[in-house]
Specification:
This protein starts with 50 loop residues before the first strand and ends with a strand. The protein has no helices and 37 strands. The chain is mainly beta. Helices cover 0% and strands 44% of the residues. The chain has two domains: 94 residues, Sandwich (Immunoglobulin-like); 340 residues, Regulator of chromosome condensation 1/beta-lactamase-inhibitor protein II (Methylamine Dehydrogenase, Chain H), CATH 2.130.10.30. It is elongated, with a radius of gyration of 25 Å. This is Alpha-tubulin suppressor.
Length: 496
């Protein structure tokens, strides 16, 4: 694997130096598949003296593929357990049972291992299992644990593959973040819950501990979430009531369980840089809090906002969408223009210069109407209304700009990404890499591939966009959320 990985910027303390250097981090890890289980429905009693009284399994759930134990309890007419009773199990056509017929023990329990063999079953769908003993039978619905997600890169492999079958509801947003050679991952489900796994040194898994965890688990006490955003060992979650929860690393308040961010209401969108949070409010204004190294907060001057959100200068109204680089901020205005602020040594603010901006300034090189802006540590990517894609910022032999060039350069002006002049419906970025979701559900990727995040089975970088090989029958409906500190690519697929 290519040991060379994209840069992360040095940290500074309030009022500290801003000595910028490119720093590279890469690691891989193998994550285990979590424990699985099943649900219970109303039994149907037979006329026999002996009957199957119940079916059960851990947490009332069943993985879409892979074995999970299911137990039936046989009792007599008095409700006492019956030993030696043969119980036969049946289910969906694709399912297998080992053994298909089990004998109850002294506690009346007969156990089989069920494998639904339906890898792409929709998370949260129902599979019906039946247990039969003589003339008695019982049928029950089981919640399916699945994953409508493809993944490649750090923490996984260089070959695009399905994520762990761990989710009881479809994934709607998912992302990862890396720091000090380790990664953590966060998923938002359609039921409004948030799930995490990975490194937990700053409490970024939100489980009240700082213990790493290799399996996905729900963040307790958190619901009605509509958006997630990741930074350095930190997570933000926007709730449907317009409030923001956060956990993990924060310059002034690191916590290991979700905590409401003070000073915010009526929030419609969030973004997260390395140590700076951003919130778009319903009135079209933008606020920032946390760190202000390299003017990442855009509040003017060098003072850090700390825990109190401050107005980003020049963004009191008219903002339609926000995005974050490592220490840069971006805003797409309702008229399709863009504004940017913060670190600009690579020209990633797209204003024709490499001058750091303490307040939001126009993206001078943006022509046409922007419909989405995304960013990573050294680059900005813009999707226009005609389906074309532009990029600016750092480029070297890894092809970060996606223009086919391999010579090191800093391009402070937005320029076309090769082969993406039309047909693009969404864009995303990880460190040094760009992704374009096409209108037909295909995905193109370019740039740095040292962690295998381009999903082509190699660690060879791409100078220009090329298709990612999507498994047959899968339709990509959404790209994983951009993160300026990520080396992992996620693609969300249709559940139908």
């Amino acid at each position: 694997m290519n040991d060379r990985v994209r840069s992360a910027l040095p940290e500074t303390t309030p009022g500290g130096p801003s000595d910028v250097q490119r720093r590279f981090v890469l690691t891989t890890a193998a994550w285990a598949v979590p424990a699985v289980a099943m649900t219970v429905a109303t039994p149907a009693f037979a006329d026999s003296n002996n009957r199957v009284a119940s079916l059960s399994s851990l947490d009332d759930q069943l993985p879409a593929a892979g074995g999970a134990p299911v137990s039936a309890i046989v009792v007599d007419s008095d409700g006492s357990p019956v030993a030696g009773q043969a119980v036969t199990f049946a289910g969906p056509a694709s399912a297998t049972f080992s053994p298909p017929t089990a004998t109850s023990d002294s506690a009346g329990v007969a156990t089989t291992t069920v494998n639904l063999n339906d890898t792409w079953a929709a998370p949260g769908s129902t599979a019906t299992i039946t247990a039969m003993a003589g003339s008695s039978n019982i049928s029950k619905g089981f919640i399916v644990l699945g994953a409508n997600v493809l993944v490649a890169g750090q923490g996984y492999s260089s070959t695009l593959s399905q994520a762990e079958l761990a989710f009881p509801s479809p994934v709607t947003q998912i992302s990862g973040s890396s720091w000090n050679n380790v990664s953590f991952f966060v998923a938002l489900l359609a039921d409004g819950t948030v799930w995490t796994k990975g490194s937990n040194s700053s409490g970024q898994l939100g489980d009240g501990t700082t213990t790493d965890r290799a399996t996905w688990a729900k963040v307790n006490g958190l619901s009605t979430v509509t958006q997630i955003a990741l930074g350095r060992e930190s997570v933000m979650a926007l709730r449907s009531n317009g409030t923001v929860m956060r956990w993990g690393f924060e310059p002034y308040d690191t916590v290991s369980s979700p905590k409401q961010q003070p000073g915010l209401a009526n929030v419609t969108q969030i973004a997260r840089g390395r140590r700076t949070g951003y919130a778009l409010l319903s009135d079209g204004s933008v606020k920032a809090w946390g760190a202000n190294d390299f003017h990442a907060a855009g509040t003017g001057g060098t003072a850090w906002p700390g825990l109190t959100p401050k107005q980003v200068v020049g963004l009191s109204s008219g903002v339609a969408q926000i995005a974050a680089g490592t220490v840069s901020g971006y805003a797409r205005m309702t008229d399709g223009t863009g504004r940017a602020w913060g670190f600009n040594d690579y020209g990633q603010l797209g204003d024709g210069t490499t001058t750091e901006r303490a307040t939001s300034s126009p993206v001078q090189s943006l022509t046409g109407i922007a419909t989405q802006i995304t960013a990573e540590s050294g680059n900005m990517i813009v999707l226009r209304s005609d389906g074309s894609v532009l990029s600016c910022g750092f480029n070297d032999h890894d092809g970060e700009l996606g223009n086919g060039a391999s010579s090191p350069t800093q391009n402070p002006n937005l320029a076309p990404v090769s082969g993406l002049g039309s047909g693009v419906s969404a864009v995303a970025a990880t460190i040094g890499s760009g992704y374009a979701l096409m209108a037909d559900g295909s995905v193109n990727a370019w740039g740095f591939n040292g962690a295998g995040q381009l999903g082509d089975g190699t660690t060879t970088s791409r100078l220009a966009p090329a298709p990612i090989n999507i498994p047959d029958g899968r339709i990509v409906t959404r790209l994983g959320e951009s993160c300026p500190l990520s080396y992992t690519t996620f693609l969300i697929t249709s559940t139908s």
